[in-house]
């Protein structure tokens, strides 16, 4: 069968087979590479179904892709085949304020969705650092989250129903508009976080939340990251739950000051950013509680003075990972060993061990991230032309992953497993991985959907 001709019958000119165009789909933001044989840009569920059915009948791998902002190789076609570029399916199909939901196609960008919801006084809360670029479909595939999941949860907390194309082209719905249901297996939650290995999402009904009336930001500095971690544990154990709780170590602060010298940040120590939201009175009360709890441990502590100051700090925080080259233009941030998570009370121990690993392998590192939910980004950066640094980097990343597992944590809190972290799935899950493989086999008997991912 002439696959190119068959695909062209389905999508016409929305098919790429030239090497230069295929190359653009051979990677994401990770180190994982894989060249597709075809790139197809569907515009409807019916087209996706026909493409997947064709692939199933001819044993061709299919990898769905959104914006390509992933950090684990999840959208990289490591075994070739068809890449489904879902970015063209980007419509908001319904804004249903009465039922506190929206229905969207998977290619819509998160910030675009929130821009559309803002006039109604609502928002879609999960907010990854790539919210200006990442698609809702990608967020569902990875169960993405971000800075405010401490209070609001991750993507899976907002997915109510999915339209999914299965491996043989069958189209199903996994849920409904109901806010709760006790009928049958929860297929919506099964698909969410499955990284395109069980089906292709073509529509999503999402719960939304009211925008808070106001936000306050507490900025505290500490002698070291370990003490900062202790302050987080103390805050939570006193019953105060911020909407966001971020850590920026000394290296991160150096990067941010070079990125924007006007930023109002402490001049010493490792910094915690506590955001609280709600009404004016409830947010101020929570901020004052945090300041009272953390003051005995802090070198300095203050409340951000204006909304503009808060906005500037959060904008800079979102860019800290990419801005590391401002510190040393000869080095590049490499996304390995960088998304681990541990139970909150283990955060101080993880921070201590991360520093020891950095020193052991003589690799500079930034420690930053969502410390309020135990998720830390340990940013290692190297001279990519130096083979010795690559070797030390890989050994350090391996030790970081295994340390997180030993502390009862995970090798990925929000960026996903993909191909980059697949080797750690057995160490983290043990015999439960066989259950995952059985589910994969049941839904995708030929193994065509995003093969080579999740250790399946």
UniProtKB/TrEMBL annotation:
<dbReference type="InterPro" id="IPR016166">
    <property type="entry name" value="FAD-bd_PCMH"/>
</dbReference>
<keyword id="KW-0560">Oxidoreductase</keyword>
<dbReference type="InterPro" id="IPR016171">
    <property type="entry name" value="Vanillyl_alc_oxidase_C-sub2"/>
</dbReference>
<dbReference type="InterPro" id="IPR036318">
    <property type="entry name" value="FAD-bd_PCMH-like_sf"/>
</dbReference>
<dbReference type="Pfam" id="PF01565">
    <property type="entry name" value="FAD_binding_4"/>
</dbReference>
<dbReference type="InterPro" id="IPR016164">
    <property type="entry name" value="FAD-linked_Oxase-like_C"/>
</dbReference>
<dbReference type="InterPro" id="IPR004113">
    <property type="entry name" value="FAD-bd_oxidored_4_C"/>
</dbReference>
<dbReference type="InterPro" id="IPR016169">
    <property type="entry name" value="FAD-bd_PCMH_sub2"/>
</dbReference>
<keyword id="KW-0285">Flavoprotein</keyword>
<protein>
    <recommendedName>
        <fullName>D-lactate dehydrogenase (cytochrome)</fullName>
        <ecNumber>1.1.2.4</ecNumber>
    </recommendedName>
</protein>
<keyword id="KW-0809">Transit peptide</keyword>
<keyword id="KW-0274">FAD</keyword>
<comment type="similarity">
    <text>Belongs to the FAD-binding oxidoreductase/transferase type 4 family.</text>
</comment>
<dbReference type="Pfam" id="PF02913">
    <property type="entry name" value="FAD-oxidase_C"/>
</dbReference>
<dbReference type="InterPro" id="IPR006094">
    <property type="entry name" value="Oxid_FAD_bind_N"/>
</dbReference>
<feature type="domain" description="FAD-binding PCMH-type">
    <location>
        <begin position="32"/>
        <end position="211"/>
    </location>
</feature>
